[in-house]
Amino acid sequence: MRLFNRVTISLVVILFLVVLWDLVKPATSTLYTEAVAQYKNKNYQESLKLLLTAYQIDSNDTAIMSLIGWDELKLGDPKSAEPQFSRARTLTLPHPPVDLLVGYAYTEIELGKFPQALALLDTAHKEGAEDVDYYIALGTLHRHSGRNRDAAAAFRAAVDRERNNEVAAKNLREIFSVTGDVKNIQVEFQPIVRAQSLTYPARVRGEILELRAGGAWGPVYLTGVDLTPALPGSYPVDASTDPSDYERWLDQIGALGVNTIFVSTILPGAFYRTLAQYSKIHPGAPLHLLQGITFPDPPRDDLFNHDYYNACRKEVQDTIDVLHGEGDIPPTHTHSGGLYPDDISGWVVGLVIGKTWLSHVVTGNDQLHSDYQNWEGTYFTVPAGNATEIFLAQMLDHAAEYEEGRYNWQHPEAFATWPPLDPIRHPTESTLLEEIALRRSLGEHISAPSGPYDDDDAVSLNPLDLRPTARFPAGYFAAYAVFPSYPDFIERDPHYQAVPDAEGPNPFFAYLRDLKAHTAGIPLVITDYGVPASLGIGHFSPSGFNEGGQTEPQQGQLLARMTRNVYDAGAAGGMVFEWLDQWFRQSWIVHNFETPVDRKPLWMDFMDPAESYGLVAADPPRGGSHPLTGDPLEQGWALFYSDAKSGGGSIFQRVGDRYDPARDLKSLSLDSDEEFLYLRLAVDKLDNDNKGQPDWKHVNYLIGISTAPSLAGLTYLPFIAPVRFPMGMTYALQLAGPEASHLLIASSYNPYHVVPVEGLPYQTVLSLKHGWKPRLEDAGTFEAQISEPNRRRFGRDGKYFPPERYERGILRYGDLDPKSPDYDSLAEWHANVRTNIIDIRIPWNLLNVTDPSSLRIMMGIEKDGTVTTTETPGFVFAVFSYRPLDAAALRPIMQQGQPIADALPGLTAPTAILAAELKNTYHWKGWERPPYNLRVKDSYAVLREALSSLPRSPSPGGQEPQKKAASTPKALQKPGKRT
Length: 979
Prior knowledge:
- Residues 1-24 and 965-979 have low confidence and may be disordered.
- It is globular and about 95 Å long.
- It is built from 22 helices and 42 strands.
- It folds into three domains: 29-129, Alpha Horseshoe (Serine Threonine Protein Phosphatase 5, Tetratricopeptide repeat), CATH 1.25.40.10; 202-618 and 936-948, Alpha-Beta Barrel (TIM Barrel); 621-919, Immunoglobulin-like (Sandwich).
- Helix 19 links the parallel strand 17 and strand 18 (573-576).
- The chain is of the alpha+beta class.
- The protein starts with a helix and ends in a 31-residue tail after the last helix.
- An eight-stranded parallel beta barrel has the order 4-5-6-9-12-14-17-18. A six-stranded antiparallel sheet has the order 30-26-25-23-40-41. Strands 20-21-22-36-35 form a five-stranded antiparallel sheet.
């Protein structure tokens, strides 16, 4: 009876569920149909929302699960897509739908599970998959596996089925490095023909390099530039594949007067094809290639880790295949891969293998393999050395073995290194632990941080520890990247300071001569040297080679000097770093405030020296429309405030002298781009005594800027009579003349402070405010923005090197018109007395905008130093004019209380401001793809002239610099207030 009752109840439940399903099924069907429509319209978020509702009703509908997976995949979330596809596949076995299998395969590709993806695509093919999605997935899988010929065939099949499919077309363009229509691409590989006899187009002879031309060998001095073709919006792995870019650049590089291009990794195929074409067209003056083969950092500092070691060997082989026109390589962390059918091996002058590792990598690897002390290979030996030198010798040996074995060719080889790893002992450069011991001995309370430590004179890689054998006639050379401002020992060693070149004391030249002495017997090639033309400064150099703060003409003058230094030191060649400005690069001095890091390529930071080393600038197009000349016909300005006095709602506090027209504010207009915030202030008349310049002794201006309204800042501004701003002002911009204009920061928003050293109160450090969050405050002050390019240091001999700081908020006066007497490529503001307009540009970093492309601003510092951010609700501005009073200037800036003459928005009383008007905010539009214009800098012409007088043959052993009149460029003076 009980069994009968249970069966009866079960049947009733089943019948009820069947009836319920008949009612529910139409609901999910409607939701699914609408979700499909949203998906087809690329509204993936809306589609997913509908599907999740349907999934709550029926969690076993495989069509719903599959489309959820596709939506999540399209939204960039393969981890969430994977379980949806997996469960749907299980429920549809043994014959899962093709679209489910293809989506699942896409997901596994995104997650790096390539064998699983291949199995899914094989199953899909057996189930009859022939659509566009299948072939794109197959092509994508082949690209990741380094099978670009198979990938190209798959993407061609996709284009055959859907001619305008941009995903397939984009992949084909990248694989073949072409532009335009991909339908008729024809690329053929020539069969490999191994040379009958050992061939090498360049060789080492003593301390110089030689090239073979017309059957005879002749000496060559390599002059060149470094090329990293990462355009704005891209990392090097996404380097340009447009042949027209390389055609233009190679023409310009050739016209510069150099004979070599250095690249640190494999570039897209368009570069090698264009280089071959250029050198064929210019047989008398070809451009040679110095090819780098870079490696990533090893896991746990172990260069002999099995997988890492083999990956490095594979990178060596891939690079050599590329040079010989046989490259079919996968994408890596440094390059996008592709097909390389162009043989340029005859123009290659050398291979530079490895990277400029931080010292902890070398130290860690040497400790892990302390028993590796010598090694003997076929082409290289290490009679006595350390484990890292042995690793490098094995990589060089493998390169020689692979190239000779497959092609019967050789090229001169070197490993990449830099001064922190040189074999020279530097008395002014202590290690971190040595410095801590010295500081403790003086009474400082300091604990040693956890490692690893990247010391600049703790471990060495000595090029002379590697020896080429008789089997390697192409030869071996030393390759160093040397910059004048780093490490500190280059500028601080008294022996280096005492050595002059033709223009005066020059530690950079002295170090090069010392380095050449320590590489005697083999050629020395300087693979990187340069200085940036940035506004921000990363390091001060006592001899004037500052890392930043140089105008473009000054950059050219310093590059010309350094180019001659490299030659006179006896090097076999030198490469200027670099050809293009690089938006993705980050310098230590500002990188904390460039976040999110993955969005850094989307904007240019003029305060970051690392981004401005190029001879070619990548300028936002709008910047060219705002040359700071005060042209009233300029386009792009948005009127933010206009003169309200005519409406009778505000008052103008006249002083009663002839300078009142300069205090009469007419309008404030704004604009912005990927590099700057632009302000334009118009007044009635700037020059009222007809002296051809503004009346700065009688009129000053103050612009309050709130970058975080109602979130942070001070409610009162400096200099002027107290005026309350409930939303807070984070910055105060004072215009008081070419030598006295500043961008000040509210103390409640300043992430830095100068603090005494614990135990040594007479010494100070500039420190982040760890564990700090900015606030809206009534009490406080506006402070100078201080930067510390050179931190306090102690030499091994105990000598103290105090910190060097400067006020980075001092605004440089000038305009951007090269024909103007006020021309200054670093200019931030200018006043035009003819048009009565003051133009200003402020680098985003000076306003602590951490990413203008997504409107992110700094909003605090975590205890570990991480910068926290938020999206700005928009910027608020207020403008004031006032008569500067000598007596007031002697008081603290918050207590000067100088009477306001005029304001925008207008004043209703001497100490009030129209609060309603301050609700106006400037809210620019973010971006995902930055526009840019490439522009040859002024430094190019200066360097070209210097190169034209440089001898074409090397000077083994170096030579004494020729004396000439010393000429210190206009601004090798220290920028800002340096302390």
